[in-house]
Write a structure and sequence with these properties.
By secondary structure, the protein is α/β, with parallel strands linked by helices. The protein has a single domain, classed as CinA-like (Maf protein). Helices cover about 40% and strands about 20% of the residues. The chain has a 5-stranded mixed beta sheet with strand order 2-1-3-4-5. β1, α2 and β2 form a beta-alpha-beta unit.
């Protein structure tokens, strides 16, 4: 995975593109992995970990999206990706929301092991969105699984 992360940073650097993330259940795992690559500071604009609905909304996610589709939805992940792009004027925004095997008493909707990820390209106004079903009882393993799937999908998205 390290080589793929290095490829991502190189592609972004070579293209003079920037990225920002808004992560919830992954707690910053994606941005952490990106910042482990030397030179990432030239492509990473900003990152936010927004566990609560209130802070997703404060960062620009529409409360209407959360109300209509729930916080655990592809629509919310895409809204997070678009909002972080707008907030930071980045070329790419990443939005992640979902549950890592734990019931949420504040948001009782959705599968307990489903994570929604959206990659948004603000220059082309296109996205790649996908979900990941995790099955570990260890949140660290679940975060790594989401990260691994994200890295492969983002590399594919960058090559289009």
């Amino acid at each position: 995975m390290k080589e793929n992360l290095e490829k991502i940073v190189k592609i972004l650097k070579d293209g003079q593109k920037t990225i920002s993330t808004m992560e919830s259940c992954t707690g910053g795992a994606i941005v952490n992995a990106i910042t482990n690559v030397p030179g990432a500071s030239s492509v990473l604009n900003f990152s936010a970990v927004t566990y609560s609905n209130d802070f997703k909304i404060k960062m620009g996610v529409s409360s209407d999206v959360i109300d209509k589709y729930t916080v655990y939805s592809m629509e919310t992940a895409l809204s997070m990706a678009k909002a972080i792009c707008k907030f930071t004027q980045s070329n790419y925004g990443i939005g992640v929301t979902g549950k890592l095997g734990k019931k949420d008493p504040n948001n009782e909707f959705g599968e307990d092991n489903q994570v929604f990820v959206s990659i948004y390209d603000s220059d082309r106004n296109i996205d790649m969105s996908f979900d990941v079903f995790v099955d570990s009882s260890d949140r660290r393993d679940d975060k790594k699984e989401v990260l691994d799937v994200f890295v492969l999908n983002f590399l594919e998205f960058l090559s289009k």
